[in-house]
Amino acid sequence: MKQSRTALAAAAASALVLTAGVTAAANAGTTPAPAAVPAVDVQPAPENVVQQNRISVGASAAAVNAALAKCQADKLPFVTVAVVDRFGTVQALLRGDNAAEHTIEAAKQKAYTAAAFGTPTSELAKRINGNGPSIADLPGTLFLAGGVPLKVNGVSVAGIGVGGAPDGALDEACATAGAGAIAGTPAGK
């Protein structure tokens, strides 16, 4: 019995080596290498290239720090603050002490919703009504108070969102403080 197991193991090993050799031979040289795709230079003309404003890393960091500081001053240390660009890409994220996991996604989604629509999420939430499909069904959006758009020359370029306070109005107050820190205006104006 021991001899048959040894023979079986030897046969399996031989089959594996043979299969690997056949596979290597089949892959060697039978398929031409893919041709390199040349890079294409697009002319930087206004009809071909769109310029985009973004919030800098320093401003993003200042905004999330100011928003979290406002929440902490209001005895709300368990929130998360996010700044995202208008496409929803996170530029800065700061999770407060004891902030639950869900606050991260809530802050990002509120920030994205405010940036994408150029309107505070508290205003957008008022527009949701009825029983059928609505803008609230769009992926990655959250129509709860706590998201504020960041605009350059009246155009939304980013958003700041806060999630985790027991009331969306408290989240929005913190987000507004963060926005004010980089807009040069006092919080709440």
Automatic annotation (TrEMBL):
Keyword Ligase in record: no
Span of the signal peptide: 1-28
Pfam families: HbpS-like (PF03928)
SUPFAM superfamilies: GlcG-like
Key words of the record: Signal
Protein name in the entry: Heme-binding protein
Taxonomic lineage of the native organism: Bacteria, Bacillati, Actinomycetota, Actinomycetes, Micrococcales
